[in-house]
Amino acid sequence: MTARSTDETRLALALRATPPSDALSEQILDAAREQFMTFGLRRSTVDDVAKRARVSRVTVYRRIGNKDSLVSACLLREYRRFVVEVDEAVAALPTTEDRLVEGFAAVLRHIREHPLIGGLLRLEPETMLPFLTLESGGAFLAIREYLADRLRDARRAEGRPASDPTPVAELMVRITVSFLLNPVSCFELDDDTQVRKFARRYLVPLLAAG
Fold first, then answer.
1. Which of 8, 83, 108, 197 has CA atoms 20 to 30 A from the CA of 172?
2. Long-range contacts of range 165-169, CB-CB < 8 Å, 24 or more positions apart?
3. Is 80 exposed, middle or buried (0-12, 13-18, 19+ CB in 10 A)?
């Protein structure tokens, strides 16, 4: 098994949701992604997705579920993809601090530019809010644990004393979600340089607490 496939498997397990492994489920999620990107969440229905996927409404319900389930499944699939990409992008950096700084910048940039997640955050922030807060419990916990695992691995690799990095991971996830949901801030985070400066000053010190 390759390092990439191992990471993908690890992330899939961490997200507590088995990615669709059959072509039909992927076809439905592809159709849902295109539907949501084109028309948004408010104007999209299960029937719209079914028509775009060329399947029946019943098939969508049986394979994925209702509209909320479709949205959650689409978001989880995108999370899996971009977290693995970010993980790979920072893997070669020499220190945990460097990986944290670059990872934070990459996550903000990736989500803001993402055609589905970033687009919906710009156009329908109030519709997306539940899927990043109230309805995201499983994904939130999973991403927190995934980040905690990475911090734990880094601490072990650098010979630091073992400790539970979960509180630090949770703070980092909450801070990231907060900036995504409400970018209006006294902090200037308009480009990667500013984001890296913020992360170096305010997030890196959190590592000492974990």
1. 8
2. 165/210, 167/209, 167/210, 168/206, 168/207, 168/209, 168/210, 169/144, 169/145, 169/210
3. buried
CB 19 within 8 A of CB 77: yes
The predicted model scores a pTM of 0.72
Return the closest-CA partner of residue 127 out of 43, 37, 42.
42
- Ordered per-residue pLDDT tens for the chain, 210 residues: 444 444 444 444 544 444 556 899 999 999 999 999 999 999 999 999 999 999 999 999 999 999 988 988 888 888 777 778 888 888 888 888 998 899 899 888 888 888 888 888 888 888 877 776 655 556 677 778 888 888 888 878 777 777 788 888 888 888 888 888 777 888 888 889 999 999 999 999 988 875
The 3-state secondary structure of 166-195, one letter per residue: HHHHHHHHHHHHHHHHCCCCCCCCCCHHHH
- Taking the C-alpha atoms of residue 206 and residue 132, their distance in angstroms, rounded to an integer, is 23
Q: What is the rounded distance in angstroms from the CA atom of residue 144 to the CA atom of residue 170? A: 5
**Do residues 116 and 30 make contact, with C-beta atoms less than 8 angstroms apart?**
no
Token pair in block for residue 175: 């801070």
